[in-house]
Amino acid sequence: MKYQVNQPSYGHDLLIQPTFNNLLNRWRYMHTFSPTLASKNSRNSDGTIIGIEDVYQRNYRLNVTYKVSEDFTLKSRVEYVTINRPNNKPEDGILFTQDVVYNPKKLPFEIALRYAMFDTDSYDSRIYSFEANALYVYSIPAYCARKSRLLVV
Predict the structure, then answer these.
(1) What is the phi/psi pair of residue 152, to 5°?
(2) In terms of DSSP bridges, do strands 25-33 and 19-21 run parallel, antiparallel, or are they unpaired?
(3) Which residues are CB-neighbours of 70 under 8 A, at least 6 positions away?
(4) Distance (Å) of CA 110 to CA 29, 71, 131, 136
């Protein structure tokens, strides 16, 4: 048993993640060809026994890192997710993030700025993304709904 699954279930993941590097850029394409086939509680229930159904999730991610200068780095990400359930319409979500990192070599600090725009159909199509924070603190929020977010660390 686990979250959103009231019965024994199964699932599998497949991750393809080539990384391309050149002098200034780093490109990464991630395809979680799940079908993150996972069984979850069915949304169609008569109120007595909740069955489980296969849920297919596919994630596509493209990261680009560009070192503008010795002190400035730009990091861009586009992530797209699709969710397919047998008895419901397909759902999707998209996330765009842009990070600007200022890390002067002669000073003992770093400033990071992130702007994120996201649009998801529901909580099921939420997208998680790591956010920089204070030293020894981390945050991985679930981006859900249609919003934007600005973070300065």
Answers:
(1) -125, 125
(2) antiparallel
(3) 105
(4) 27, 9, 14, 14
